[in-house]
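This part of the workshop introduces the protein records we will be handling. An example says more than a description, so a record of this kind follows.
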Amino acid sequence: MGEAKRRKDLGLPPREKKINKEQKKAGFISNLSAKYPFLPFILGGLLLIVLIVDLVNYYK
């Protein structure tokens, strides 16, 4: 008697298949963005300030 038939007779659910998921090692950027989710906004703001200051100095 096969295992599936025996499990059915005993009233057990089908056996779950074991799936080995290989975990990828996260890179530096993804670790940093996960740790500090507000960092892109800060960097974007700093870049915008630098561009505005540069634009003002250019037209003086």
User: Anything to note?
Assistant: The first helix runs from residue 3 to 10. The chain has a mean pLDDT of 88. Helices lie at 3-10, 28-35, 39-58. Residues 28-60 form one domain.
